[in-house]
What we know:
Blueprint: H1 5-21, H2 25-48, E1 51-52, E2 56-57, H3 61-85, H4 89-98
Antiparallel strand pairs: 1-2
Helix pairs in contact: 1-2, 2-3
Amino acid sequence: MDYNGWHAVAGIALFAPGLFLCRRNSWSVLDLLAAAVAGTAPGIWALISPQVMWVMHMPDHVTDALIHFATAAVMVVIAVVQIRRDGGWGNLMAALRTG
């Protein structure tokens, strides 16, 4: 996998809001699901093309895509576990509405 400055910036951009959003279960689940989507999109791009942003060559683009997909899958699994612990999606969303 290629790790560069863009990965560092993206990691901080995903991690920093999570520090605030982890205060409530409903917020953290939504953050995990959003981060999973945000990580899957560049994974799809990396799987399709070895040229990132049409500029940088990534020789290990397939491995990078697999890491993106695996990380997204872990986030979804954690979100699903939390949803089940909270009694289902309806209860989680009710907690979101009530604050």
